[in-house]
Structures are given as C-alpha cells and as structure tokens.
Design goal:
- Helix content is about 25%, strand content about 35%.
- Strand 5, helix 5 and strand 6 form a beta-alpha-beta unit.
- The relative contact order is 0.17.
- The longest helix is centred in the middle third of the chain and has 14 residues.
- The protein is of the alpha/beta class and about 230 residues long.
- The protein has a seven-stranded mixed beta sheet with strand order 4-3-2-5-6-12-11, sandwiched between helices. Strands 1-10-9-8-7 form a five-stranded antiparallel beta sheet, with no helix packed on it.
- It is globular.
- The chain has a domain of about 160 residues: Vaccinia Virus protein VP39 (Rossmann fold, 3-Layer(aba) Sandwich).
Amino acid sequence: MREGHQGTGTGAITPDGCAVDVYRRLGVGIEPDVIEAAVPPGASLLELGCGAGRVTGPLVARGFAVTAVDESAEMLEAVRERVPGTETVRSPIESLDLARRFDVVMLASYLVHTAEHGERQALLETCRRHVRDDGCVLIQREGEGWHLDVPRERQDPSGCTVRIVSAEPVGDGVNSVLAEYVFPDLRWTQTFRSRPLSKEDFERYLGQAGLAVDTYLTDDGTWVRARPTSS
C-alpha cells in the first residue's frame, strides 16, 4: 500500500486504496460525452489508470480503439470481463513505455493531483511520451474548492452514495482525503493523499512535461485538453 493510502471493505484493494468491487459497481457519468466531443471519431486512445473499465466500455462502444492501462491485475481482469477483446497493459503509469504513440492519451481520476511532485512529473511525461505530436492529452483535475467543500455527497447512477467525508492537511500543501462509498448492501472507504493545484501551478507542470492547455472542456474546469509543445 502506498504511504498515506488505504482502503476498507470486501474484495481486493489496490495500492492507492481503491476497492476493485466499488469500481466494478459504479456507473458512468459525463466522461464518455466529454471525451467524444473533444477528440476525432475512432481515435486511438491510451487510457491511463483505467480501473475496472467503467469508462473504457462506453468509449469502445463509441468506436474508439482503447488501450487500457492499470497497475492492478484485479482491475484489468474486470476490464477484460466488461469489454472483451480490449488491449490491456499492467504497469505503473509513471514507468510505462509502450514504444508507440496514440491520437489521444487520457489521465483521469484526478491522478494529476498526486502528492509527490516527482510522480506528477513522471505521469505527465508518460502522457507526452505516448501522444502523437498532432494528438492531444485529456486530463481530469479537481474543481475549485474541491478540498474545501466538505463534507459533501452525490448519488451515483449505480445507487451508491459517494461521500467526501474530510480533507485534512498533512503538511507540504498535501491533504489526506477520506472518501466513503455506500451501497444498499455494502460500504467501502478509501483514504488517499491529494495536493490541491492552482490553475497556474497545473499549467506550469504541464509545461515542464512539454504540454500546454488547448482548452478547458467543462465549465467547472475539471476536464482539460492539452497539446504537445515540443517533439
């Protein structure tokens, strides 16, 4: 388990505290619509941190050629069950090197907010390494006030109540976040570390990896399309 990360509940727990069974159950939100509107039809797409394939399935159904990457064998097993025939790769994102490039690279699930600066740089460099020079990188980032508007909750299409219970400072600008997933029959929790990033910091880190914001795709700024700035 990664430092500062843990999970509770039944089934396999990934190194960052995610419960595999939660992501098998959760529904899909606006992500496929946002992605489809932002990239060319039928594009080749590298999905970094695919989890259990919650978004992978709808993207494949919409005609995208998806390569799904995750470090969890249990998550990738769920992807193969959900979307048979999809290419899957088991690897940490930060060390991935497939020696090929894609029209689109996607880094969702707020992974850019990792607590470690070196890990963030490696994640973004993986994005740049795998995107075509004329392609794009889609990144999901936390909304403004994400760490301040707590506790809060939302209802997932699956019937799960998703709660962000707390976000407590642990030093160096990092917060320890407690999330809770409550289904009618079962409950899971995840504790993880997240670093809030200002828009300026976010764009500066992109630049250090050879990427630049092309446009903010959603009104709340949580989905971003970036383009390569160098070969």
